[in-house]
Automatic annotation (TrEMBL):
Complex formation: Tetramer of two alpha and two beta subunits.
Lineage: Bacteria, Bacillati, Bacillota, Bacilli, Bacillales
Name of the protein: Phenylalanine--tRNA ligase alpha subunit
Reaction(s) catalysed by this chain's protein: tRNA(Phe) + L-phenylalanine + ATP = L-phenylalanyl-tRNA(Phe) + AMP + diphosphate + H(+)
Domain Aminoacyl-transfer RNA synthetases class-II family profile, first and last residues per copy: 127-335
Protein family: Belongs to the class-II aminoacyl-tRNA synthetase family. Phe-tRNA synthetase alpha subunit type 1 subfamily.
Enzyme class: ligase
Cofactor note: Binds 2 magnesium ions per tetramer.
GO molecular function, one term: tRNA binding
Keyword presence, Aminoacyl-tRNA synthetase: yes
Cofactor: Mg(2+)
Length: 361
């Protein structure tokens, strides 16, 4: 190719590249302007400034230019690239701010809305029964006494007039840790320990707590349950004191119009022993499904402390006497709240437990 011709060709080429560059710049700027979001903007960046973009292509084509034209064209390409990049960045900032503003607007908090109720727990129905009984007795001058759940055979049985081999032990079979250590079958050992510690002084205590018996669990039996036992010891404590106390308890737990009935019974630790019924709180005594047609509901056992029990703890049965009673907390709660299966108390199902939230006694 003759030199002149080559020169003309090159001028044409430069002119053509400059034109193309301007056009590309205009196009890119227009698309940046039109980008509605960061994704669209990024697409523009990749399309025009990316490795496979037209500006890169132009740079690659600079080999065709003369040594003179090449740096000029290089500088021009860089200017365009810098300009497009700068406009892109400005637009990116605008779009980012818009995105944040939109997010803030869509997530705005209406401070006038009522707050969400915080779910607070409620007392377990057994705790409620126990606390109610505790409150009543504390009000009558009793103290609350507690003791170990893993107990010595001596305090659980022997000190309560149940020597080894006594047939009544069968009714309170337990979980044995060793020959002499077991899970307590009632809270009576707390009373036995208190008597031993008080060394002949008068006593007025109630003893709530967990007790354990070897039993097959069903709707009305559990190998673990809660008891509340009471013990009063002093001079001239009589059966009438026991009767008056139990009457107060029955009325407090099941309504002021309850009547009580004491039936003779047997416990090795009390003599005489009784079982107490209350007049049915549902039918008032006429007979219904709750009282199984009898008009009476069995509530607890009680009696006058056996002279052997007094003696074993160092009290003189000729000088002092006492009464005691025992209540199963589950039985009271089942009757009071109409619970048909004792196992509901232990399974921690909130559908069951939350029903007691507003049932104040
Ligand atoms: C001492 C002396 C006497 C506690 C008593 C009962 C009667 C009784 C049952 C009620 C339902 C156990 O939970 S239950 O199965 N209890 O019938 N308890 S007299 O007599 C005592 C306790 C301690 C030193």
């Amino acid at each position: 190719m003759p030199f002149e011709q080559a020169g003309i060709y090159m001028i044409k080429e430069v002119f053509y590249m400059e034109e193309q560059l301007k056009q590309l710049e205009q196009e890119a700027l227009a698309k940046i302007e039109a980008a509605a979001n960061l994704k669209e903007l990024n697409d523009v960046r990749v399309a025009y400034l990316g490795k496979k973009g037209p500006i890169t292509d132009l740079l690659k084509g600079m080999g065709k230019l003369s040594a003179e034209e090449r740096p000029k064209m290089g500088a021009l390409v860089n200017t365009v690239r810098e300009n497009v990049t700068a406009v892109l960045e400005t637009k990116a900032t605008v779009l980012e701010e818009a995105a944040i503003a939109e997010k803030l607007a869509s997530e705005s908090i209406d401070v006038t809305l009522p707050g969400r109720a915080i779910k607070v727990g409620n007392r377990h129905p057994l705790t409620r029964v126990i606390e109610e009984i505790e409150d009543l007795f504390v009000g009558m001058g009793y103290e609350i006494a507690e003791g170990p759940e893993v107990e010595k055979d001596y305090y659980n049985f022997e000190a309560l007039n149940l020597p080894k081999g006594h047939p009544a032990r069968d009714m309170q079979d337990s979980f044995y840790i060793s020959e002499e250590i077991l899970l307590r079958t009632h809270t009576s050992p707390v009373q036995a320990r208190t008597m031993e510690a008080k060394k002949g002084e008068s006593i007025r205590i109630i003893c709530p707590g967990k007790v354990f018996r070897r039993d097959n669990d069903d709707a009305t039996h559990s190998h673990q349950f809660m008891q509340i036992e009471g013990l009063v010891i002093g001079e001239n404590i009589r059966m009438s004191d026991l009767k008056g106390t139990l009457d107060t308890l029955a009325k407090k737990m099941f309504g002021a119009d309850r009547e009580i009935r004491l039936r003779p019974s047997f416990f090795p630790f009390t003599e005489p022993s009784v079982e107490m019924d209350i007049s049915c709180f549902k039918c008032g005594g006429a007979g219904c499904n709750v009282c199984k047609g009898t008009g009476w509901i069995e509530i607890l056992g009680a009696g006058m402390v056996h002279p052997n029990v007094l003696e074993m703890a160092g009290y003189d049965p000729k000088k002092v006497s006492g009464f005691a009673f025992g209540i199963g907390a589950e039985r009271i709660a089942m009757l009071k709240y109409g619970v048909d299966d004792i196992r509901h108390f232990y399974t921690s199902d909130t559908r069951f437990l939350s029903q007691f939230e507003r049932t104040e006694a």
